[in-house]
Each structure stands twice: as C-alpha cells, then as structure tokens.
C-alpha cells in the first residue's frame, strides 16, 4: 500500500470519527441529562433558543439533526432525523 493511499485512508477515518451526530450517540441521550452531558456527547449545538426556563437546542441541518428541549438545565425531551 502506498504512503499516499495510507494517508488518505487515515484522513477518512479521522473525519468519520469526528462526526458526533449519529444514531449511536442519539441512543445515549436520556431525559434528565444536563446540558453539559449532552454537549459532551454531541458537541456544541448549531442553534439554541428559549424563554422562561425552557431552552431548545439543535445540532445539524434540515436533513440530519438532533433537537433537545431542556427545562432549566435538564433534558425534558429530544428527537432526531436522518441519523446513521
């Protein structure tokens, strides 16, 4: 195997491992988790909004996403779409 092929293969593996938005991590989400625990699992959210003690954060885009709703600092409910 050439050095170039090996370097390309290594880069692909690193990039695939960096994507935290997947079915495996989604299945680890639980009601009652803290925001810090969710962000450790999924990384920083793409967008957050909220009012009066409730917050909704989204990771991803229109095709592949995870949405988490918080009451205070704890997960109330969550949903996902297009995860692999």
TrEMBL record:
<feature type="signal peptide">
    <location>
        <begin position="1"/>
        <end position="16"/>
    </location>
</feature>
<protein>
    <submittedName>
        <fullName>Outer membrane protein assembly factor BamE</fullName>
    </submittedName>
</protein>
<keyword id="KW-0472">Membrane</keyword>
<dbReference type="InterPro" id="IPR037873">
    <property type="entry name" value="BamE-like"/>
</dbReference>
<dbReference type="InterPro" id="IPR007450">
    <property type="entry name" value="BamE_dom"/>
</dbReference>
<feature type="domain" description="Outer membrane protein assembly factor BamE">
    <location>
        <begin position="19"/>
        <end position="46"/>
    </location>
</feature>
<keyword id="KW-0732">Signal</keyword>
<dbReference type="Pfam" id="PF04355">
    <property type="entry name" value="BamE"/>
</dbReference>
């Amino acid at each position: 195997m050439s050095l170039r092929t090996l370097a390309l293969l290594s880069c692909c593996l690193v990039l695939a491992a960096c994507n935290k938005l997947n079915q495996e991590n989604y299945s680890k989400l639980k009601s009652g988790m803290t925001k810090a625990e969710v962000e450790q699992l999924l990384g920083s959210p793409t967008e957050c909004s909220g009012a009066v003690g409730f917050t909704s954060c989204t990771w991803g885009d229109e095709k592949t996403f995870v949405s988490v709703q918080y009451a205070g600092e704890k997960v109330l409910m969550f949903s996902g779409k297009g995860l692999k």
